[in-house]
Please model this.
Amino acid sequence: MDDIPSSLQKIVRNKKNMKEIGIGKDLAKFGDTVTNFIYSLAKSIVLGKLDQRKVSRIILSAALKQSDMKIYAKTRSDAHGLADTTEAFIGYMYCIGWSLESMAEILIEILKNYDLNDFTIEKSAAIEAFTHLLLKIKEHLLIKFKM
Model:
């Protein structure tokens, strides 16, 4: 059996630019699971106890806007559509070889500075953390696609 990373790379190799990634419904569906897992992983490590949290579309859409990556979403997308774009990028990065652990580490860099037991603070921290992750993704993809 092929190893999983190279099999996933074959699936997404047809993506030619960042807009194709951002509007990819299949990537958004796959990325939803990856996004929730890396956030739960990061939050569990920061709190020092196991935790599970679905990341809200408000957090993901705000992070997409703050990272100036809204241009890669479908035109006139609502918060749900913008969140799908964020999830598509995260799913794509996993498919091309970014590990769950490395993406969680990027989130942890920011989350560790906040009290995640306070929901209001956690929401702001999560927006900042996902913005930080998206900026790293953007930097990588701009080089990859020579933009």
Remarks:
- The mean pLDDT is 95.
- Residues 119-144 form the longest helix (26 residues).
- DSSP finds seven helices and no strands in the chain.
- The two ends are 35 Å apart (CA to CA).
